[in-house]
Amino acid sequence: MIELEVNGVLREIDMPLDTPLLWVIRDGLRLAGTKFGCGMGLCGACTVHLDGQPVRSCLTPLSSAEGRRVTTIEGLGDGSSVATLHPVQQAWIEASVTQCGYCQSGQIMAAVALVDANPDPSDAEIDRALAGNLCRCGTYPRIRAAVRRAAELKRRGEAVVQTWDPAVAVAPVGGLPA
Amino acid sequence: MSDSINGPLLTRRALLKSSAVAGGGLVLGVNLTGCASSPPIADAGSLSPDAWLQITPDDRVIFQLDKTEMGQGVITSLPSLVAEELELDPGRIHIHLAPVHSRFQDPLQVTGGSTSIARRWEPVRQTGAAAREMLRAAAAERWDVPTAEIEVRDGVISHAASERSARYGELAEAAARQRVPQDPPLKDASAFRFIGRSVPRTDRVTKSTGEAVFGIDVGVNGAELPGLITAVVIRAPRFGAELQSFDGHTAREHPGVIDVFQISSGVAVLADGYWPARKGAEKVTARWSAGPIEHLDSASLEAAQRRALDEDSGRRVRNDGNFARAADAAERVIEAEYVVPHLAHATMEPMNCTAWMRNGTCDVWVPTQGPDIVQAVAAEAAKLPRDRVRVHSTLMGGGFGRRGIPDYAVEAVEIARLAGRPVKVVWSREDDMRHDFYRPATCNRLRAALGADGNVLGWEHRMVGPSIISNLVPDFLGALLPGWMPSGLTNVLGRAGGAVIRGRDSSSTEGAADLPYAIANVRVESLVHDPGIPVGFWRSVGHSQNAFVVESFVDEVAHAAGVDPVAFREQRLAGHPRHLATLRLAAEKADWGNPAPGRQQGVAVHASFGSYVTEIAEVSVENGRIRVHRVVCAVDCGLVVNPDIARAQMEGGIIFGLTAALKSHITLENGGVKQSNFHDYPLLRMDETPEIEVYFVDRDAPPSGVGEPGTPPIAPAVANAVYAATGQRLRRMPFTLDRA
Lengths: 178, 740
Description:
heterodimer; A: alpha+beta; Ubiquitin-like (UB roll); DNA polymerase, domain 1; 2 domains; 31% helix; B: Aldehyde Oxidoreductase, domain 4; Aldehyde Oxidoreductase, domain 4; five-stranded mixed beta sheet
């Protein structure tokens, strides 16, 4: 029996010690937000935080997580409202980053670790921090923009205010950028 | 979720709550209770003028999303079509991922070919308009006032003069008794409030909180599927190899392993989780036959393709004028050979499917682009009639054409049938990479006949590759044929159909046979050479390679004629105003001819799936490495239903095409695939991603697709820019530079 803290709650895990943390989270704790992409630490879809640091949970055996603090995408906000979400998630929503969405939990966890550690990351720092997170839909340009925006929101201590007002939305056609 | 963000808040919680009322038990369309809900779900007292729409007496507006969502945004754009005519904020619409239903088949219930918006543009708006008119008629009747005086706006029906109003739901039952208008008036484009505006993605919240339920997540965070177990499958190491024997004794003793048995594709290992299943599978020993292509590798395939081009003339798919005569009369003839490799789809979510057979029924939860194809093959695997198979589509972690093929669903049903409990089959990345239906490898020979003045007298394109359609039809034609037809007959018909189609498959010549440039003598020939590698539809299909081949060679011809590549195309596109408009818009926005210092530009124009695209890439070459800095994309896709989603699709299509141009390829080795994971099948990364600008041509033509058309032009645009930078012509994908 192994003890670890998952999203602020102490959990007892009765699974083989070599089980990757990814499968402890998904099959053991039944948290589906952390995704399986490659099983070799090559794509970043399974990124979670271990004591605040981003790790590839598909390569992290349960044994090495013992007694440590695990944060998954479910632990970033309480989900009761967008305002309680992490600024990174708010910026993601504001910029409509996601397409298929499958890699986004991992992207967001990597981005959260970045902006928590670095209040004003440069584009090069963003690229470096997220270069290990693959996205087949090609959301990279929006991820880059959303990380910049998230850092800004966090610095200002603001929550994003989102409104969809069809009366003022403008159709960007006629050679204007959408 | 709070209401601070409008738009349907597709959270599990919200949907669970709403679906409890609907009685369908639908969670993001995933019917976890397995309750039979006869599609389309129309509760008593609801208004449902057509299968897509239902307005319930408790004032819920439900949209059946018949096209499946793989990131392309139909979950947002299609409901906004009905919302427009219904005069309702799209954010108020509940979305159900639709079951298989005849109304959704045209002729198959398939999501692909960038057709969703084009095909649903009329019928879905008509559905909304019919509901609106029926509500108005019901209100007029109830209030005894003229229908013409009834207003409909934002979920409320009102009559100003008598100051009466009602919610849609209040009138749903009465409206349902009205005659369904056959040709309801559609709104004029000038009155659109949602179409043409960037209605925010309805799935953006749940996909940013981890709550969105993909196929692989079915049953993970709930007890809806009691006793759900995981299966992995050990498949043939070479294409066509057959399982001769296996030993599962040691695997069965592995903790957590429940069973090990043979299915049609290999050996299934069932366990109480993915990890024990995978560890158990490592302990299975399996013997396979050599198979029919044991000695095939990519080099020998390419050599065979070259031989075919040497020896055969192939099917002539276009023959304008007389190329041979033009070549004879030419001052000079330039020629080139272009080669493209097999490619994997590599969706981020590996293939997976969950199935449960009980009481003579089969439920299948599946991330799929073809729910009725799944239904047909699942029925055969389950040995049940089709109407006993319920397909529950889920969100997909990418599709790109891969999820139109239901091989993984067949596995799940075969396993569930023997297991007697719900089973989820999960593929590893290695399984996914090595058992794909690949973008075909092709070899192309081109010749251009130039006159003394540099004028282009003739163009010849000869290509060789497999036929995707004839490859797939024998296995999956069954889905097209009526369910009562015996399976033996569908198999025979499938093989016969494959042979017929083999000679006519336009998916290999699209984007080549329709060369738009004004050239008097054009000959395009296509040869089928099929060694038995499974091939399939890969984002933009034939266009994905033919745009590279054609637009690169156009660039060669322009340079040979001594004409600027944009001017060369402009001069020959007079008869194609939509191509031309994108070319001019892109050239203007990219400031063609004036790249940033140290960079060079390349251009490509290509039409696919009814849309017209020009891309201009700005690249530099440093230390033998190609760096793409900026891409300007101009697109004419008719009326732009959702500009932000259309822009995202163009961005994504460009990055998908850049991966093929710069990064990855599949290598055949001993009749199988060499690559296994992202270390040897790399994808473009964020630090390699250029700035992308997307511009739309202002056009009110009916909307056409945006899912695929962004992909084809990027490889030739980059190759042409690299030529401008280095003088090296890149004729093989992915690109490699000579160090010299």
